[in-house]
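Tip: read the tokens left to right.
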């Protein structure tokens, strides 16, 4: 499975690729621990799997409707050539992993790979966050107790966090290859400019508030 990520990141050297794959595995563990995803949570998700599968058509169709009702979402769907049938198939495949996965290393790699597919298709991170929100909205009513509801929240954040980590990794690779800026230098640049940019943007927000 680690090779899957390595292949997807074939712009790097072999050692860089396995380093990134290892980082994804590490991220999966760190995020699982941060969110405190326990074996009981994994069990709670599995207990919901049948209910979710039975409602999958409705969940997927509601998420797709929200995406298509949004100008950016619609534009992204059209540009990527994604059909509704294909989207439904992919969403269902992912839902099966959310409610049947073990939140271990292989699962983290599978989710990172899904994230990479979106970077490749030019789907903006904002749309990923919002679409995850539509899944949260649709799944909220399917839990039969608080433990299940909490497990769903943890699971969706874990998925989103790993998908977005794929975006950071691609950005990191591109920055390094295209403009020769490595991650530490980039982080330092952000620190150097952050205060100045923060000042400008907060003034702009204050001005905007006054106009409201
Ligand atoms: C929580 C949000 C989302 C989930 C869970 C999800 C799920 C998936 C999955 C499982 C795949 C297959 C990835 C792979 O090949 O390994 C995929 C691919 C794709 N998704 Fe999403 N998706 C989400 C949001 C979006 C959004 C907002 C768009 C915007 C149009 C989008 C467009 C695509 C496209 C174009 C592909 C590639 C299609 C293909 O391989 O035929 N997805 N998605």
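Filled-in amino acids:
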């Amino acid at each position: 499975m680690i090779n899957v990520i390595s292949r997807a990141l074939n712009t790097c050297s072999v050692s860089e690729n396995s380093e990134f794959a290892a980082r994804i595995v590490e991220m999966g563990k760190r995020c699982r621990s941060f969110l405190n995803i326990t074996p009981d949570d994994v069990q709670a998700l599995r207990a919901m799997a049948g209910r979710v599968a039975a409602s999958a058509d409705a969940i997927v169709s509601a998420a797709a409707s929200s995406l298509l009702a949004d100008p950016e979402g619609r534009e992204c769907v059209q540009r990527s050539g994604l059909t509704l049938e294909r989207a439904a198939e992919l969403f269902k495949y992912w839902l099966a992993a959310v409610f049947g996965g073990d939140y271990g290393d292989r699962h983290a790699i599978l989710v990172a790979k899904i994230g990479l597919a979106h970077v490749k298709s030019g789907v903006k991170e904002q749309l990923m966050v919002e679409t995850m929100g539509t899944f949260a909205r649709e799944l909220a009513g399917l839990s039969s107790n608080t433990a299940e509801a909490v497990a769903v929240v943890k699971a969706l954040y874990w998925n989103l966090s790993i998908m977005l980590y794929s975006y950071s990794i691609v950005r990191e690779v591109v920055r390094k290859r295209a403009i020769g800026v490595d991650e530490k230098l980039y982080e330092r640049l952000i620190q150097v400019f952050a205060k100045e940019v923060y000042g400008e943007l907060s003034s702009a927000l204050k001005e905007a508030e006054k106009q409201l």
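Residues 67, 76-77, 80, 82, 86, 90-91, 93-94, 113-114, 117-118, 121, 123, 127-128, 131-132, 135 surround protoporphyrin IX containing FE (CB under 6 Å). The chain is about 85% helix and 0% strand.
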